[in-house]
Design brief:
alpha/beta, 7-stranded mixed sheet, 4 helices
Length: 137
């Protein structure tokens, strides 16, 4: 599925549509350049799952944020600054996948080998100043 977003609100709405199908146990791999809208996408997921969208922030420096208010717990990770798979393993990535929440990984390409085969891939690409192409596979 490929969608076009023309605003932050539309990006969040696309994520909210995806959230309707989530049952727990999913891993979502987010990829896109800096400023593409990865964190806004997570904000839309969290809001649609009943969590507080204002609590969502990029986990670039802390590696992991947990949003546990709502229908499903969301584990939000960022692989931008990781030195490799060992960093993700050290924070218990494998155990997070077993928690029956939703594991979302920004910059997922950097830890590709750790992701489960059933991963939902979301690529966000800037195609204009405010326009984004969001491809879900």
């Amino acid at each position: 599925m490929t969608r076009i977003s023309n605003s932050v609100k539309e990006t969040e709405a696309i994520a909210a549509e995806m959230a309707k199908s989530l049952r727990g146990g999913e891993c979502i791999a987010l990829d896109g350049e800096l400023g593409a809208g990865k964190t806004q996408f997570v904000r839309g997921l969290v809001a649609a799952l009943g969590g507080d969208p204002h609590s969502v922030s990029s986990p670039t420096y802390v590696l992991l944020n947990i949003y546990d208010r709502g229908r499903l717990k969301v584990f939000h990770l960022d692989a931008y600054r990781v030195g490799g798979a060992d960093d993700f393993e050290a924070i218990g990535f494998a155990e997070l996948l077993e928690q029956r929440g939703v594991v979302v990984v920004e910059w997922a390409g950097r830890v590709h080998d750790l992701l489960p085969k059933s991963v939902i891939r979301v690529k966000i690409e800037a195609v204009g100043e405010t326009e984004r192409q969001i491809e879900v596979s």
